[in-house]
């Protein structure tokens, strides 16, 4: 439809579809930013490590021998604002000299790229050259003597420089991306909550629109029924009366007798149709009195035919505020349809239960059941699957039950056939 909103075909699901799409886009963007920030923070950490290592080379290259405590303290103080927290000279894993507070100690020392350690710090390790002792001119005998005791050939233990630093910029990138991801998650929760509220509002709006449309149809049907009652009731009563007199006169005639009887039966059918129409559109006040639901159901079964019905009543007398006559009519309409749908030898199953503050009448037949998608439509006026009848019985049943504040539902049950549930709550429930 050209002027209809884009979401109209989706109905109440439209807000959920839009919300899911928005959340998918939002979370995808947030996760992409998070992944990019993590990669960038690793690059920033490596860059900081290279800066610190180059600064260390520049600071200690002119020193005689290994850096001493004063040199390390000065180097740490000059680079503290840049994130440097610890610097040390190690022989294998034993500190020879150090400055600052170490976070993870000197375990698992490995040369190579910056390694992220506990507490948000990164650690950089690289080897440095140990200055060799300077000897004066030696004679051949002195050189041989020193070699014999290992002063020259003794293996020299590796010496490393260790830097621990906080990659402040990298940590800030990670923190901001984490906050952004949290905001995205919270936004998605909010969007889904709004979608839930909007979908409920949309469903209520559509239900109200359907109810108003049904009310308009009922109003039009009421006007039509009033006109029919005024224009046809008297002529139909006259036709029926004269047809009955004629049928009595020609009862013995084998040709005219059946034809006169046919006229009478059709007049009675039209009269019943008119009564059904008037009963359907009548919205009169219920005359509630305390009645026993067992008695109401028993009367409906007796009228329909007890031989074709199996009934399970409430175990005890239970007074209930009902319009007994109208509720009996509603039950008769359902029972009559069930008996007509069930084959011979398969009785209709009827039960009456009390669930919390409601009466539940259940009617099961063994007929063909209800076609999928027709569970609501069969309660509309003039919808029928039978050759005879105009499809007002179930519509009247729904109207009577709704006047009691209840509801009627229909479905096909597992054993084959249809199942109707009439729920009648107590007044004010």
Give a quick summary of the entry.
With 429 residues, this protein is an alpha+beta fold. It has helices at residues 14-60, 69-79, 140-149, 168-249, 256-281, 293-304, 324-341, 393-403, and strands at 84-91, 94-100, 112-117, 121-128, 159-165, 289-291, 309-312, 320-322, 348-355, 358-364, 407-412, 418-425.
How would you sum up this structure, described in words?
51% of the residues lie in helices and 17% in strands. It is an alpha+beta fold and 429 residues long. The strands form three sheets. It has a five-stranded antiparallel sheet with strand order 2-1-5-4-3. The chain has a five-stranded mixed sheet with strand order 7-9-10-12-11. Strands 6-8 form a two-stranded antiparallel ribbon. The longest helix is centred in the middle third of the chain and has 82 residues, at 168-249.
Please write out the topology.
Blueprint: H1 14-60, H2 69-79, E1 84-91, E2 94-100, E3 112-117, E4 121-128, H3 140-149, E5 159-165, H4 168-249, H5 256-281, E6 289-291, H6 293-304, E7 309-312, E8 320-322, H7 324-341, E9 348-355, E10 358-364, H8 393-403, E11 407-412, E12 418-425
């Amino acid at each position: 439809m050209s002027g209809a909103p884009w979401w109209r075909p989706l109905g109440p699901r439209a807000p959920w579809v839009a919300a899911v799409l928005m959340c998918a886009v939002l979370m995808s963007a947030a996760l992409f930013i998070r992944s990019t920030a993590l990669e960038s923070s690793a690059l920033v950490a490596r860059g900081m490590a290279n800066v610190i290592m180059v600064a260390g080379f520049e600071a200690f290259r002119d020193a005689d021998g290994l850096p001493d405590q004063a040199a390390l303290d000065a180097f740490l103080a000059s680079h503290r604002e840049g994130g440097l927290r610890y610097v040390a000279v190690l022989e294998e894993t034993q500190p020879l000299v150090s400055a600052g507070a170490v976070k993870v100690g000197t375990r698992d020392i490995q040369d190579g790229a910056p390694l992220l350690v506990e507490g948000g710090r990164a650690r950089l390790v690289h080897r440095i050259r140990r200055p060799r002792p300077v000897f004066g001119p030696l004679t051949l005998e002195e050189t041989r003597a020193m070699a014999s005791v290992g002063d020259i050939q003794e293996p020299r233990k590796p010496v490393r420089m260790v830097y621990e630093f906080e990659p402040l910029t990298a940590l800030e990138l990670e923190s901001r991306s984490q906050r952004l991801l949290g905001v995205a998650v919270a936004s998605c929760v909010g969007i889904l909550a709004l979608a839930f509220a909007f979908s409920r509002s949309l469903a209520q709006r559509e239900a109200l629109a359907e109810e108003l449309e049904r009310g308009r149809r009922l109003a039009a049907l009421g006007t039509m029924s009033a006109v029919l009652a005024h224009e046809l009731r008297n002529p139909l009563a006259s036709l029926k009366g004269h047809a009955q007199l004629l049928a009595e006169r020609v009862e013995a005639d084998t040709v005219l007798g059946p034809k006169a009887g046919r006229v009478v039966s059709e007049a009675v059918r039209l009269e019943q149709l008119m009564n059904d129409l008037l009963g359907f559109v009548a919205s009169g006040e219920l005359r509630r009195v305390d009645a026993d639901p067992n008695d109401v159901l028993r009367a409906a079964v007796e009228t329909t035919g007890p031989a074709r019905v199996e009934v399970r009543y409430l175990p005890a007398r239970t007074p209930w505020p009902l319009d007994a006559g109208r509720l009996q009519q509603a039950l008769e309409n359902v029972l009559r349809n069930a008996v007509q749908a069930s084959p011979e030898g398969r009785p209709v199953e009827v039960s009456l239960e009390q669930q919390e503050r409601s009466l539940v009448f259940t009617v099961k037949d063994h007929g063909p059941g209800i076609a999928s998608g027709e569970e609501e439509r069969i309660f509309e006026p003039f919808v029928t699957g039978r050759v005879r009848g105009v499809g007002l019985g179930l519509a009247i049943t729904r109207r009577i039950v709704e006047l009691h504040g209840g509801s009627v539902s229909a479905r096909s049950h597992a054993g084959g056939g249809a199942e109707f549930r009439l729920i009648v709550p107590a007044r004010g429930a």
